[in-house]
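Lab manual, section 2.4: Encoding a predicted structure.

Procedure: take the sequence of the chain (322 residues), apply the prediction step described in section 2.3, and record the output as structure tokens. A sample record is shown.
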Amino acid sequence: YVPNRSSNSVSVIDSVTLKEVDRFNVGSKPQHVVPSWDLKTLWVANNGTGKNGSLTPIDPMTAKPGQQVPVDDPYNLYFMPDGSAAIVVDEAMQQLDFRDPHTMALKSSLPTPTCPGINHADFSVDGSYAIFTCEYGDGGLAKIDLKNQKVLGHLDLSKMGMPQDIRLSPDGKVFYVADMMNDGVFLIEGDSFREIGFIPTGIGTHGFVVSRDGKRLYVSNRGSHKMEQGKAKGPGSVTVIDFATRAVVAQWPIPGGGSPDMGNVSADGRQLWLSGRFDSEAYMIDTTSGAVTKIRVGVEPHGLTVWPQPGRYSQGHTGNMR
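Recorded output:
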């Protein structure tokens, strides 16, 4: 399921035939397709402009959309680890909105004044806190106490930049933070909330997908430092990091150029799917060889998801499963 931000639509791709089999309209500026905590709904986060955002539910059994639910500026969407609330990342209002995970009725809001451009997150192993990336300003990270809904602190990274995606390592010890201006990945120890390392990857480091066996991290390098309207056929690539050694073990350039962004792996782990943000295409990458297949979609595709996924529940984004 590929949200086409500038086409206000979602493309549905058959992962066997590698063909687009459907395309339907959603709300304004769809950013991510997010599996619900209970795995019964795929929510399209329609960012909109200001307060005219919405969430479009997709029934994964039929691959058809339902009635939009108006919400303020849902750039991204996560879920409390116990499923008690949806967390709408209200980027424009610089806050997190805690909503009913089924109806999306607003329950409470948490201002995050030290985190301009709040956008991506991942959760600690015990679910007590989450770390969110702060895209704008000087960049940095915000640590959030989920139970008490309060900001625990802000961490400035050693180099100013634009943090994007963030993922917890499978051993639960380190958060990996993609930074598109520093062309690499910061390593953060979550409990002490301190920076412990940096791994160079490629131009415009942007998104993360964990391999099915949990041994490797696929890092999308968008090939540009521009947020929007980047050049097509840029030097986009995928970097493969080994979690055990924290070393780069492979580099997969997009043949002919491209702009890999967000995505996920197939249920069997053999396919890595990423959107091509500035190229109106999606990429299916063979996780054994790095071979790339390109599929045309709408304009400015962003946070695609692959469904179904194995797991007990979804924590949000494009299918962060636990």
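Check your result against the sample. The mean pLDDT is 98.
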